[in-house]
Design a protein that fits this description.
By secondary structure, the chain is an alpha+beta fold. It has four helices and 20 strands.
Length: 325
């Protein structure tokens, strides 16, 4: 029986597979005894809070335990005030010293992860994205050849007072190609949330880039709908270069249509480090909806993969693709 939460994608193939495995080929060097091969990765990525780990290393209790002890015997009317006071005390006396100590440790022992900054323009906050990049490190665990499932974790050390610290503790691998992974970090999904960002991870080079969200003025839950899959990544052969591609369906009278918006991000070149937006017409069926005269596009892709060297494939039994050249 196939595991839930994994997606299978063959590199360079347009074949549709059950959406439960993610195969990444030729991006890892195994020990000599194992040879080389494909790796099966879980889509779901957990966070590891480095500040919380250091607090535990020092033998101190976590915040929730401290608050629980402080609330013992406190009447209901006073519990909120006591909780707020205890949280502030914990941050100043426990978390802040741990954060400072972790910063000093990282200065003494720099990370092996190469962090590639991108220029942040428009209405995006460059400070927040800079903090996101500085305080995140991917780590592959349980590395083995398929069919053993390996995992990716993100070790985070974001500033305590940064909005990044309020993120749900997880991320999601949307797609893979060659040695590249594309992730949604935090609760972000186009049209649904304004919190979070894209992460491009080059496993061979051990490098990451934080990519800003789609422009808020171009996408909202009222203007667009998802096509069923997430962002796709294309690793350009022979170069440390990649494309991110996000395809959304435009809404007409509140319903998905066969008109779409294609967003492209390239890591290098004249149009690098910006979302390029193109309006497209998709060869998709339009069907009338029950109890309304408004027609709607009912197509939903199961998988997204690479088609040839410059195309992206959205998978269904009668699927189609677009060429990015």
């Amino acid at each position: 029986m196939e595991e839930e939460g994994l997606l299978h994608m063959e590199e360079g193939s347009s074949q549709s597979h059950p959406p439960n495995q993610l195969v990444l080929s030729r991006f890892l060097q195994f020990p000599d005894t194992m040879g080389s091969g494909e790796v099966l990765l879980s889509r779901f990525v957990e966070f590891q809070d480095e500040i919380a780990e250091l607090i535990k290393e020092r033998g101190l209790p976590p915040l929730h335990s401290t608050v629980a002890v402080a609330l013992e015997g406190i009447p209901t009317s006073d519990r909120q005030a006591v909780t707020q006071r205890e949280v502030m005390r914990y941050r100043q006396e426990v978390e802040k010293p741990a954060e400072d100590a972790l910063r000093e440790r990282k200065l003494r022992c720099p990370s092996s992860v190469k962090k590639v900054p991108v220029a942040i323009t428009g209405g995006d906050d460059p400070v927040s994205y800079g903090q996101a990049l500085d305080g995140i490190e991917p780590r592959l665990v349980v590395i083995a050849q398929a069919p053993v499932v390996s995992s990716l974790v993100l070790r985070v050390s974001w500033p305590l007072y940064s909005p990044l610290h309020s993120f749900p503790r997880g991320a999601y691998i949307s797609s893979a190609h060659g040695n590249m992974l594309a992730l949604y970090v935090g609760p972000y999904l186009p049209c649904l949330s304004s919190q979070g960002f894209y992460l491009a991870y080059d496993v061979c080079a051990n490098s990451i880039s934080v990519i800003p969200r789609l422009p808020s003025g171009s996408v909202s839950m009222f203007s667009h709908a998802g096509i069923g899959t997430g962002v796709a990544i294309l690793s350009m052969s022979g170069m440390r270069d990649f494309f991110l591609v996000e395809l959304l369906l435009r809404k007409v009278q509140g319903r998905p249509s066969c008109q779409g918006t294609l967003f492209k991000w390239r890591s290098s070149g004249p149009a690098a480090n910006q979302w390029i937006q193109n309006e497209v017409v998709l060869p998709l069926p339009i069907e009338p909806q029950e109890h309304t005269s408004v027609a709607s596009c009912t197509f939903r892709a199961d998988v997204v993969s690479v088609f040839g060297s410059h195309g992206v494939f959205w998978g269904r039994p009668s699927s189609w693709h677009t060429d990015l050249q």
